[in-house]
Write a structure and sequence with these properties.
about 40% strand, about 350 residues
Length: about 350
């Protein structure tokens, strides 16, 4: 009798709690957050943020609470980010010793550890190629590992000089190049993307053109130009696909166009160059000539802020993904350029467009 009464009370309690949970978890529409602020024409718009697998694995957080689901794959100390052509977001996490794989299109999440690839200690950089191979740099083991989509090891890269803290990495399928930043050797190692054989070394330690002082991150544009963050020289250097120096911009300082601690770098479809600064807690945008255009975000833990940002990537539809390391999240923003205007005009929905704001 007592058991029957207890079960009935439990069912009534659950019925009372469910509406409250769903109301509490309802999406709150906040005002648009854009840069620059009105009355200027906005160029960057905040969209949402990702903190882990729960942003993809469940449509209802209330259901997770009721069913006791665990919030797996939580970002701890994200470092680098890469967005593949199919929209998958790859995030390295040095505290989790893992690389997370978020899929906004299929609303799923995974990681190389959960696939069985438990080989990483301090993963820094990640990229993919047209064969869907995953390339991961590990600054603790001084290795660059190549995985397939199931987490199987395909190869490890072998430069002529052993790596010393490999960091940024980028693949150029069109020009058959794979570039790896070798931070403590102060140069870039170049491999043939098809054979993974070492082909060339770009740079040495120094301050002149084509020389580096603890480089950290790298990006490639649609023409095969290579952009390298020369961190301890406070600048960005640009090379062609053959490794020939083209241009450089930036210096240490505290005015627009200067850097304090430059980190991640990426390029949008219109050739604008985005550079993250971990000390300024912002992202600066430069034109193709290296001239400053604007900056966005700033210090904070709210929607419009970040603390100790590191990596950045531009997706196929000009969505901007920024690693907000201290706040343990990936901020997702949209560049309001030609691709955005085309979507607005045609009503087309971007295949990698994030779902809801949060």
């Amino acid at each position: 009798m007592k058991s029957h009464i207890f079960k009935s009370m439990k069912r009534l309690l659950l019925l009372a709690i469910v509406p409250v949970l769903f109301i509490g978890c309802a999406t709150i529409e906040l005002p648009d957050l854009v840069w620059p602020e009105p009355p200027e024409i906005p160029r960057i718009k905040y969209t949402r943020q990702y903190t882990g697998g729960s942003d993809f694995q469940s449509k209802s957080k209330a259901a997770d609470i009721l069913l006791g689901a665990k919030r797996a794959l939580v970002l701890k100390k994200p470092k680098g980010v890469h967005v593949a052509k199919d929209g998958k977001i790859y995030v390295t996490d040095t505290a989790a010793s893992d690389v997370f794989i978020f899929d906004p299109v299929n609303q799923s999440a995974n990681s190389v550890n959960t696939m069985g690839a438990r080989y990483f200690f301090k993963p820094i950089g990640v990229t993919t190629d047209d064969l869907n191979r995953i390339f991961i740099t590990d600054s603790q083991t001084d290795k660059v590992t190549v995985l397939d989509q199931e987490g199987k090891v395909l190869a490890t890269l072998s430069p002529r000089t052993p790596f010393k803290q490999p960091s940024g990495i980028a693949a150029d399928s069109e020009h058959n190049r794979l570039y790896v930043i070798d931070t403590h050797n102060h140069h870039i190692e170049v491999f043939a993307l098809d054979t993974l054989k070492h082909e060339d070394t770009i740079g040495k330690r120094g301050k002149d053109e084509g020389e580096f002082n603890f480089p950290s991150n790298i990006a490639i544009d649609s023409e095969g130009h290579v952009y390298v963050v020369d961190t301890m020289n406070g600048r960005v250097q640009i090379f062609d696909s053959e490794g020939r120096f083209i241009n450089m911009f930036g210096q240490f300082g505290d005015i627009p166009g200067m850097f304090a601690r430059p980190k991640g770098i990426s390029v949008d479809s219109e050739g604008h160059i985005y550079v993250v600064d971990a000390a300024f807690n912002n992202v600066q945008i430069f034109n193709s000539e290296g001239e400053p255009m604007m900056a966005f975000i700033g210090y904070g833990d709210d929607r419009g802020g970040m603390i100790l940002p590191s990596g950045i990537a531009l997706g196929p539809e000009d969505y901007v993904y920024v690693i907000d390391s201290w706040n343990r999240r990936v901020k997702v923003l949209e560049y309001l350029g030609d691709k955005h205007a085309e979507r607005e005009k045609t009503g087309r929905v971007a295949p990698v467009e994030p779902a809801k704001k949060n």
